[in-house]
Amino acid sequence: MSLLTLSNVSVRYGRLTAVREVTFSLAEGEILFITGPNGAGKSSLLRAIAGVTPPSGGRIDFADHDITGRAPEDIARLGLSMVPEGRDVFGSLTIEENLMVGTGMHAKERGWKTRAATELEAVYATFPILKDRRHSQAGLLSGGQQQMLVIGRALMTNPRLVAIDEPSLGLAPNITDQVYERLIALRAMRKLTLLIVEQSSTRAMLVGGRMMLMRGGEIVLDGDARALGQSEALQAAYFGYGEH
Amino acid sequence: MMSPSVARRTFATPVLLGLLLIAFALVAVAVGSKPFNQTIIDIFLKVIFVVGLWVFVGNSGVISFGHIAFACLGGYVAAWTTIKPMMKGMSMPGLPDWLMQTEIPYWGSAIVAAGWAALWALIFGSVLMRLSGIAASIATFAMLAMVNSIYSNWESVTAATSSVVGIPIIRSIWPYLIAALISVFAAWAYGISRHGLALRAARDEPTAAAASGIDIPRARLIAFVISGAIMGMGGALYSHSIGIVTPDTYYLGLTFITLSMLVVGGMGSLSGAVLGVLILSTLIQTLRWLEAGVQVGETTFALPGGVQEIALGVVMILILMFRPAGIMGNKDLSLPQWAALETKGSQGPKNLKT
Amino acid sequence: MGSLLQVVFDALSLGSLYALGALGIALIFGVMRLVNFAHGDVIAACVFALLWPSVDAVAIIFAGNLPWYLLIPFVLAIGAALSVASEVVVFRRFRRANPATMMIASFALGFVIRYFLLMLFSSRPKSISLLPSLSQPVEILGARIPLLQLITIAVTMAVLFGLTAFLRRTRFGLEMRAAAENFTMARMLGVRANRVIMGAFALSGALAAAIALILGSQTGTANIMMGASVMLMAFIATVIGGMGSLAGAVLAGFLLGTIATVMQVILPPDARAFRDAFVYGAVILVLIFRPQGLLSARGTKERV
User: Fold this and answer.
1) Does C174 touch chain A (CB under 8 A)?
2) Do C239 and B135 make contact, defined as CB atoms within 8 angstroms?
3) Which of B92, B173, B204, C137 has its CA 20 to 30 A from that of C197?
4) E strands, chain B, in order
5) Is some CB atom of chain B closer than 8 A to the CB atom of C232?
6) From CA A103, how far away is CA A87, in angstroms rounded?
7) What does the alpha-carbon distance between residue B217 and residue B196 come to, in Å, rounded to a whole number?
8) In this structure, what is the dihedral angle of CA atoms C124, C125, C129, C135, given to the nearest 10 degrees?
9) Burial B135-145 (b: 16+ CB within 10 A, else e)
10) Taking CB atoms and an 8 Å limit, are B305 and C99 in contact across chains?
């Protein structure tokens, strides 16, 4: 069952084309890595999916709704949560306040308060370090803690699909290991679908799952991460061997 | 200071603008009526003000609400230096003796006014230019209010809120045309100089500009002073066009009009500034005429007073909404390709991908 | 002792007005990076909304005759409505514009409102009688303080506490704070952009209405330039308080009120008329030493 479908999606900034007619589908429960060199259009693609930058062409469907060009808050309410790159915590708010921002969407539903409390406890269970410092200002956390915070924050919206842009950026490898560990555990627990952009394909190959390689705004490879990692196709695609 | 090839390439702009202004002057000569003359003089004065405003606002990207304060300074310099000493003594007894005795021709007062305004631009600017864009804009508003407050209260030197009369009235359009032409060329020269270039770089990419060694506050200050000087000159001439000066002439109303002209024409280019004046002046004149009443058969249709400003405000908002770069859209008037003054070789690579 | 107390209350009540004005600006600036130059004209419009359009010198009161417990909510509602209307009709189209463009647009809107009032009411100030019972003086420790001053200070304190509680303890307040810090990120978490912005404008408009009520009672006149002098100080307060900081705006408002009142007292009588110029001069001095404002501003620095 396809949860997310992109059909010929393009993203242009003025005369610069960042994403060129990309088409793919993501099934529920899948884990998909999008890797590729700098400037390949990965972040732009994610931003188009999340509604931050409306696509200049094509169509995006999520859970049977057409979300092309819709407002980010509407897309979030449908169950698609994006964690942009750079660990954008709300620095002047506390950890707990950061986490609670996303719960407003369901505020009209009955039993919302208890559900939000349960969600909160679940996030704290996954990231205990956040619970210890729940009333500190988010701006004071370390990089790894902030990364966990932004992931936890996205989870509080009760999403079906979480899209994360460069979770390992600027983090030490062992911290990244921890973050991924939690992420994978969460996926199993809550049947999350994960769409992760990573510049390095190594992580994808370590974790396993599906991997797509983007270059110049297009998808040039799509397959099982481990299988691709062992073939030459990956190197060729990265470096453009055999092409003009 | 400015590269000769850039000068050659862009020279068409001030020349074309100048010809446009001369055309307006000739129309006035043809019509030959005093009120129409006054209207054209008013247009030339607005050109001076808006071009002066452009020198700073257009190149720095910082909105200034306070430039009319420099016009106020200039306007009173005209009063201080050109009114007959006896009359001066009656309305402004507090002036120092040497100033009291001074009586210079109007073009002298314009020059002194430019210098006086430039001095104060330097003083205020050295503080204000270190502020961030929005904070600087608010600070210029405060500067306007400050000048207005001082000039409205310092009775012995400015006659406070009473009008100061006796300023020699210059009714010929030629001095105003010349001053407008001077402003246009000065603004153009600044724009293509390396100071202008540095400031525009800072406007577009402050971080990259600073990293390239541009001292942003200093670049802004230079523009602020030059634009202040132009405003000062304009203020003095404004006094000479109507013969009197009061502080409230140089306050919110004039600020609003000059800013709208700049916005509607396009903040990004000198041509935008000039065209904004010409276009909006036409609109204002039409509205003024309609407010005075139009005879249609037996009845007189007249728009209620205040419609001018409302219409101006609405036009400004609409332009900002739909064409924020203004009518000229950051482009300058220039000669069409076939009349360009360059030789073939300097066209640059033809196969650049756009 | 009595006159010292008088000066203190003068400073506090003037500072309160400035603080309320600055708060109205800072709220909107926080979520939208818009400096709303039309705010002063919204203040004037709130007072004129109580009168029938006329050019007479004595106003024909329309709603101004309501008893205070109906009048006050009425004016607050008018302020909020006017402010939200300006958002929906004008500022909404500028969401993606740069701050400078929005600022000029608000300047133009202010002029439109002002000249619209001029058309309906003429530029002559009208005398009105708004909550006249508030001008009685109250004796405290030998000083005669107008009741209105005490009420102004009390109202401002109440507003400050209320607003703080609202922002820190309610869901909507949390969303506004998050949006003020990073608007796009907040939207990605489901925060509705329109609601937050309209909320900020409604609050701002209600604050404008409060200022209108105070000024109207204080001066007994309705004048289209009423809001202008308070708002000029309020804008300056937001700058020296640090753009984007609510606490800074309030602090700076009280600071300016104190400076202005102290100047009024210590300046020789000849120089009193220049009081405002001195205050602006003092502001410039503050800016020389701290161009970024008293409290550091968040979110106004560009990320490289």
Assistant:
1) yes
2) yes
3) B204
4) 294-296, 299-301
5) yes
6) 19
7) 13
8) -160
9) bbbbbbbbbbb
10) no
pLDDT < 50 regions, chain B: 341-354
pLDDT at B295: 65
Q: pLDDT tens digits for B45-98?
A: 999 999 999 999 999 999 999 999 999 999 999 999 988 888 888 888 888 888
What ipTM was reported for this prediction? Answer: 0.89
Q: Residue holding tokens 């309209």?
A: C198
Encoding tokens for residue C213? 């009520």
Quickly list H helices, chain C: 2-32, 39-48, 68-89, 99-121, 147-169, 171-181, 183-188, 193-219, 226-241, 246-266, 275-289
The secondary structure of C134-161, three-state, reads HHCEEEECCEEEEHHHHHHHHHHHHHHH
List CB contacts (< 8 A) between C115 and chain B: 306-307, 309-310, 313
Q: Measure the CA–CA gap between A118 and A112, rounded to whole angstroms.
A: 10
Structure tokens, A143: 């990089």
Burial of C225 by CB count in 10 Å (0-12 exposed, 13-18 middle, 19+ buried)?
A: middle
How far apart are the C-alpha atoms of B82 and B95, rounded to whole Å? 13
**Contact at 8 Å (CB) between C247 and B110?**
no
Distance in angstroms (rounded) separating the CA atoms of residues A43 and A51: 12
Task: Give the pair of three-digit tokens for residue B45.
Answer: 């004065």
CB-nearest to C187 from A71, A107, A156 is A71
Q: How many residues does chain C have?
A: 304
The span from the CA of B49 to the CA of B319, in Å, is 21
CB B200 within 8 Å of CB B194: no
Q: What is the DSSP letter of A106?
A: G
What is the rounded distance in angstroms from the CA atom of residue C182 to the CA atom of residue B48?
Answer: 42
User: What is the Cα B290 distance to its own chain's centre?
Assistant: 27
Beta bridge partners of A16: A13
What spatial distance separates the first Cα and last Cα of chain A, rounded to whole Å? 38
pLDDT, position C197:
94
- Per the CB < 8 Å rule, is C187 touching A90? no
Q: CB–CB of B325/B268 below 8 Å?
A: yes
Q: What is the pLDDT of residue B47?
A: 96
Neighbours of C248 (CB within 10 A): 23
Instruction: Report the distance separating Cα B215 and Cα A118, nearest Å.
Output: 55
Report yes or no: B326 and B266 within 8 Å, Cβ to Cβ: yes
Report the run of H or E that residue A27 belongs to, with start and end: strand A16-27
Task: Give the gap in angstroms from C-alpha B348 to the nearest C-alpha of chain C.
Answer: 32
Q: What pLDDT is attached to residue B218?
A: 92
CB C179 within 8 Å of CB C31: yes
Reference A28, options A59, A61, A60, A63; nearest CA is: A63
Of C104, C239, C243, the CB nearest to B63: C104
Q: Could you tell me if residue C37 is left (phi over 0), alpha (psi between -120 and 50 degrees) or otherwise beta?
A: alpha
Which residue type, as a one-letter code, is found at position B75?
G
Residue B275: CA count within 13 A, CB half-sphere: 21
Cβ-defined contact of C190 to A97 (cutoff 8 Å): no
Nearest CA-CA distance, residue A164 and chain C, Å: 12
Q: Which residues contact C8 (CB under 8 A, 6 or more apart)?
A: none
Q: Does C296 touch chain A (CB under 8 A)?
A: no
Tell me how far apart the alpha carbons of residues B261 and B57 are, in angstroms, rounded to a whole number: 13
Helix B34-60 × helix B270-292 angle, to 10°: 140
| Residue C102 phi, psi (nearest 5) | -65, -35
pLDDT at residue B343, as a whole number: 42
Nearest to C246 by CA among C24, C33, C23, C31: C23
The pLDDT, as a whole number, for residue B55 is 96
What's the confidence (pLDDT) of residue B338? 61
Which residues does chain A have with pLDDT short of 70?
1, 237-244
